[in-house]
Fold these 2 entries.
Entry 1:
Amino acid sequence: MHAPNGEPESTVTVLLTGADSQLSKALLRVLAKAAYRFDGRTLRVHALSHAELDIGDKQSVEAAFARFKPEWVINCAAYNAVDRAEMAADEAYRVNSLGPELLASECALTGARLVHISSDYVFSGEPACIAELALNQNSLTDSSLSNSGLIESGLTERGLTENATPAPLSVYGQSKLAGEQAVLRILAERAIVIRTAWLYGVDGHNFVKTMLRLMATASDAQPLTVINDQIGSPTWVDALAYLIWQLIASPLSVGCGSGLFHYAGQGQCSWYEFALEIQRQALALKLLDKAVPISAIDSLSYAAKALEKGNKLAPRPSYSALNSDKVRQCLTGQNLALTHCPELWRDWRWQLKAMLEDYAAKGL
Ligand SMILES: NC(=O)C1=CN([C@@H]2O[C@H](COP(=O)(O)OP(=O)(O)OC[C@H]3O[C@@H](n4cnc5c(N)ncnc54)[C@H](OP(=O)(O)O)[C@@H]3O)[C@@H](O)[C@H]2O)C=CC1
Ligand SMILES: Cc1cn([C@H]2C[C@H](O)[C@@H](COP(=O)(O)OP(=O)(O)O[C@H]3O[C@@H](C)C(=O)[C@@H](O)[C@H]3O)O2)c(=O)[nH]c1=O
């Protein structure tokens, strides 16, 4: 008995786009450790780089589907340069919106299922979006829905749910929102769209690695300045990878509603608090020799300083912490094996420690 692609029935073919991304590398790393099986079948994963598959090119997408005949596609490809996207909107939309649309259309034709990744930058952090969070929690009256009041009351502590209203401030955020909407329009519940945030891991470019580099070279005379009025949820990319394999291994029941999910490290912080914690943990692991001064700065002053140097920054959300309860309830409700995967529901500080230990072990 053979599957449509001619391979033995006992394998499930998964196609990863954007093979050089942080996420694609984490998916392969996690799979090597966890040896997931799917209905007793093993996985056959094909990870295609940008050069091998351009997701914004219809012919390229059709050729990849024709060649590999995937049952699942995980879209790790994206245009992620948030500042550059402001001046390169066409390319950002081609990769972040047209790309997912082409993948979803091909999945609809072939019956494959799609996991697509979106971003917390679809939110603005403005009071209207936060207000929705409070209303979802049935906790406040209209008169008390002020942004600062919510933060003081602790109601934002659990983050934005899937019901919060997106209002992206940047071209990157707008193009990501267009991409997730296209996928859900075409595939509805056959798609899994995961909004995540502030991703970091041992591979590729990310805030943690940038901070480690800057901390290693900063001096008392030139301290680091880091924004303290943007709040979000740092997320270890390996934990996201575990979640994705888990979602593929245990398809969710219809009761889980739409295919849109939030997933991030638990808790929330500002970039400034994140930087302080990176330094604290890196010193403890001897990844850094000495502490360097880190000062807090507000977004407006940071953007003004960047502009003085000729760099125009894209606006970023002031509040975009994500609430992962929906996906957690859907998964744990039906798969007790999740207790073997504690990384998923850990506080962001725990996840950071896991990443830095991995980083130290690799001698990076
Ligand atoms: N990084 C983050 O903090 C966050 C990321 N996300 C989302 O998570 C997903 C994974 O992100 P991450 O692992 O950080 O990604 P990376 O930035 O590490 O990698 C993105 C990859 O996409 C590739 N790529 C760009 N354009 C195309 C294209 N047209 N066709 C195929 N490949 C292309 C790039 O290749 P090349 O470099 O060769 O062009 C690169 O390898 C993305 O959807 C991203 O938007 C969501 C929230 C936070
Ligand atoms: C390097 C640096 C950044 N910052 C600020 C700028 C910015 O507001 C914030 C993060 O900076 P970065 O440019 O590293 O990160 P940024 O590109 O904004 O990160 C985003 O990437 C996209 C892809 C996402 O989807 C988001 O979830 C988020 O992770 O920290 C400082 O304040 N000081 C610094 O020294």
Note: DSSP finds twelve helices and twelve strands in the chain.
Entry 2:
Amino acid sequence: MTQTSASNPLQNSRIKIDSIDKKLIALLGERERVVKEIGIYKAKNNIPALQADRFKQVLEKTIEAGKQEGLSATFITELMNAIHKESLRIEEEIKAQKQ
Ligand SMILES: C=C(O[C@@H]1C=C(C(=O)O)C=C[C@H]1O)C(=O)O
């Protein structure tokens, strides 16, 4: 039987998590739309998608920001590597469309 929020103490927190997850995904969509703009510029100007120095900076900044939120460097590294992988996929897709 489905529990009501009064009978399930986790319900309110889970509603909050669902709402936060929705915002996280919307923010990731916004980030990747900016990556798309960069990808279009790079494709036009023959610039490689992968910019290791820039990603190193991104990683350093996000690890520091994560530290302020009590998040481990390992978690932030895994998260940002996953985001970066998606950025490169999107940029390579743009490049392939331009051929
Ligand atoms: C968005 C860029 O392209 C790639 C993606 C990055 C990212 O998602 O943060 C960073 C560096 C690049 O490897 C960029 O060059 O700035």
Note: The radius of gyration is 18 Å.
